[in-house]
Amino acid sequence: MENKTKIKVPVMADAAAGGHQPEWLFWVGSAGAFDDRYKKVTREFAKILSFLKIDYAVLGTEESDSGDVARRAGNEMLFQMQALTNIQILDMYDVKKIVTCCPHDFNTLKNEYPDLGGNYEVWHHTQFLQKQISEKKLHFDTTLFKDKTIVFHDPCYLGRANKEYDAPRSILDGIPSTKVEMKRNRSFGLCCGAGGGQMFKEAEKGTKEVFIERTEEAIATGADIIATACPFCMVMMTDGIKYKNQEERMKNYDIAELVSLSLGL
Amino acid sequence: MLKQLVFSLALLATLATFAWTMRKLFNNFKFTKKLPLTHIPERIRITLEVAIGQTKIFRHPVMGFLHALVFWGFLVILIGSIEMVIDGLFGTERVLGALEPFYDVLIATGDVFAAIIFISILVFLSRRLFIKVKRFYGPEMKPVSKADANIALSFILFLMVSLLGMNTFYLLDVNSPDEQLSGVYPVSIFIASFFTTLNPSQIHFWHEFNWWAHILLIFVFANILPYSKHFHVFMSVPNVFVSRISPLGYAENMESITKEVKMMLDPQSAFSASTEAPPKFGVSDAEDITWVNYMNALSCTECGRCTAVCPANITGKLLSPRKIMMDVRARMKEKGPGLRASGSAYSDGKSLIGDYITEEELWACTLCNACAQECPVNIHQPSLILDMRRYLVLEKSAAPAGLNNAFTNIENNGAPWQFSPQDRMKWADDLFINETV
Known about the structure:
Number of domains of chain B: 2
Structural class of chain B: mainly alpha
Helix content of chain A: 40-55%
Number of strands of chain A: 9
Shape of chain B: elongated
Largest sheet of chain A: 4 strands, parallel
Oligomer: heterodimer
Helix content of chain B: 55-70%
Mean pLDDT of chain A: 96
Number of domains of chain A: 2
Structural class of chain A: alpha/beta
Low-confidence stretches of chain A: none
Mean pLDDT of chain B: 94
CATH architecture of the largest domain in chain A: 3-Layer(aba) Sandwich
Largest interface: A-B, 83 and 75 residues
Strand order of the largest sheet of chain A: 3-2-4-5
Radius of gyration of chain B: 28 Å
CATH class of the largest domain in chain A: Alpha Beta
Number of strands of chain B: 1
Order of helices and strands of chain A: EHEHHEHHEHEHEHEHEHEH
Number of helices of chain B: 19
Distance between the termini of chain B: 101 Å
């Protein structure tokens, strides 16, 4: 018998008030907190954390934008203001381990915050999930995707930027389904078109939009599902599927959603 | 004796010209920005892997393999060239021949490589002349760039012909019982079988002719290289050594900004603020780049592997990472002399951004790092693109409207969209989980 239980997502300030120091900080990120599509991913990941009984908390309203977009758009001043403010909060709670669903925030927190005095062990949610799955020997005995073909789109800031190509693929391998690759995959992967601040501006004049080029490549594999692991890639691939009128045939999921669905959460 | 004298003069002229060119090119490093060179053991490892091991060029397996053969062949043949210089200066013949059996292996390898390089160069030339590979084209590939490539390839072709010729006629020339034959020549011995009908004086002439042709071609080639894209023959190994070793996604921190931000966040320190003029932020012209950026530009051989994988370029935008590197080198060549003569305040009324690179190109970049991932000599184009964006935003407030909106939102709401920071936890409302009881 299934039973729906309400989850209360733990907040760092409450934990600290209760004298508890959670093992993990779940860094939600601006897209995870505000983008309608990616909020669903955040919710699924929180459900997984709860299911796995992970000792974690989020910063809630104390979290602010990581500054990644500002930095890559050239606004170093704004980036550093954001970074230093966030580091102050993170250090106040003596945060040691961070997990996030956003490869951009993952890259910035892991590689760039140390320059400003913020040193944390930072994990992308695909790395975190891969480790949990192998340690807890989780099995997905689901038939949900048995007849489906899944293609993974490498986010640039997880893949090329941080050389993580295997974690998402290893998770997908555990989900009963058919896996295919696009022609340009792993370190050859084509950007979705949203990086470097492109998400927030009009594209320059050209012959095509990058997200269309990438979606066409995904469609050509004949896959039913494009799996992503990044809020920006999610927006771009969703737009691409709509643009190519493939909504009936093709769906777009984050790895966290596929895991949550496979676990029946 | 006359031969030694002529050779010494030719060598002297070569070295003098080369030194003069190098001084001109390397003087430009004086006004580039400093950057410390750390992690030496890691750099040695990367140099062995990427430069000597040619790992990144193998991302195009077939052409990569041919290039690797040419490169490894060069390394072997280089030792033979050093021997020729010693022979030329001291009137000896195949002086390293004393190093048997090492010499036999070396010369045999070089002889085989000469044939392999000859064939590879023919393939490379036909790709440029007949097959018209897409990445060799593009608006930035002016006729001079194409001529550059064809001249360099032709030089290498003649270098290999003269090397094989030298070996072939050497074999025939020492075919008398009183002289000791040095080295093993698997390819040349085959070629020699076609020339056995020549008389000894003809053979001796062609031996001398090929010897001189080979060494003089090297001397001329060495002095043409620094003026062409093929300078990468000299620069790419050192460039790999000094290349960025941080993860591709890492962006360099601007310390000058950190000082200002810390002052803003800490009102106390505002009183102790220094009165010195703030430095210029970002890159807008030749004098703003780091010495590693300049090394990158000198090492670029315009192969276009970066541009071929650039998402912006693939979809018809103006941006081409190869062009960025070519522009930096050209601008440095143009402004360098003035900067050297009159200091960093020198202006010729032009600028890297504007006259060479347009803002449209810079804003088309997705900072996906595909170009840097691809570059066989570890050039990092995105860091330079980012530094130019930093100039546009921090000095000129010239970001596209959409990005300015995002900046304002981040400042006011702590997110690039217009949402209240108080709503940051709303995603967690009414969250239920299925639990099997």
